[in-house]
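Write out this protein's structure.
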Amino acid sequence: MKTDHSITGASTTMAAWLMLTLGVAAQAAGTLVVSTPAYLIPYLLSERGLSLADAGMLAAAPTLGMVFTLVAWGAAADRFGERWVIAGGLAGTALFMLLAVSATDTVGLGAMLGLAGAASASSNAATGRVVVGWFPRPRRGLAMGIRQMSQPLGVAAAALTVPMMAAHHGLSGPLVLSGITASVVAVACAVGIRNPPRAMQNITVSRHNPYKGSTFLWRIHAVSMLLVAPQFTLSIFGLVWLTSALGWAATPAGTVIALAQFLGALGRIAVGHLSDRTGSRVTVLRWVAFSCVVVMLLLALTGWQEWALPGALALTLATVVSVADNGLAFTSVAEAAGPRWSGRALGIQNTGQFITASAVGPVVGSLVGLLGYPAAFALAALTPLIALPLIPARDLCPGTDSTATRVSEQIAGGDHPGRQRSRVQ
């Protein structure tokens, strides 16, 4: 893998924040694409006559597409670096979203959305590698929290724009908007992203498979699969619940969702910083999982009582908590996997999450049809409850105290690689 060492010395810290900014933009653009079909559900129900289960299936098409490509994109990032993986994937995403405009039936539309999701998966693992490569461990929790805020921001953008665009321009408006956004960000990433100046290019780093001899990564993957179920339950069905069950109009309901996602983005930064302060990702992850059980039951209660304003407040709180775990788990996986495996490990991490996410649309849609929204929300509280005993007791970061990691962190903090190399020798 070629690594760009042209940005070194005092400018490295500035470069790290620039890479993080572009990574956030890339992930947000991909999330906008993946979230667009979910906020088309009211339009699909009223204008296309689809059932809620069928509309949920269409909303799940992009995440289903991601399942098949996340590991491959991660392996590509391990092999070739992050820059062109991110830019090329977003360019493909833009192409498929624009092609979706010409789809003549639901099957064709679902196929294009699935391909767009498959292409957008490039930014998931690769932007995570950018953060781990440019930031030292004591700052990764905060940096990854900022990176992870891109996902709720992308969802917020979809909540604000998709219902309005669909009302005025039909199905094509939101598809064109997300396609153009992806294309603009693809160009910015191609121009601006630089692969991290990894010190391990000059020193020996173990090629050991991190999945052998430890269950840590598998447990984090399983926990994340369980914790993502409430998150996607709310992002897919939160808007339609407010409008159809609690009587909210589409525009103010979209504003509630957008506000909730924005607060969720800030929450990811807060828990990431908290994990830096406590020195433990998994401890904070355990706190988040327990809180998720509580807030999902609270949401179910407001649904049973049909409280419009308290329901919106509970939805906002549940959204903030349900998205808070991703950055913690993502950072844990990258640190435990090490630089030679982080792309693939993050790809596996996201694959598990999006397998769950792909099932949420049709499964929860069917549960809502059979039992109603409150019962569906209460059942969603079971997944974080099951996750609690699976969370490891302590973090696994085997390279944290090694010479290789110290050098990498010093480079990310602003020291020149030439000076550090003499210390290693």
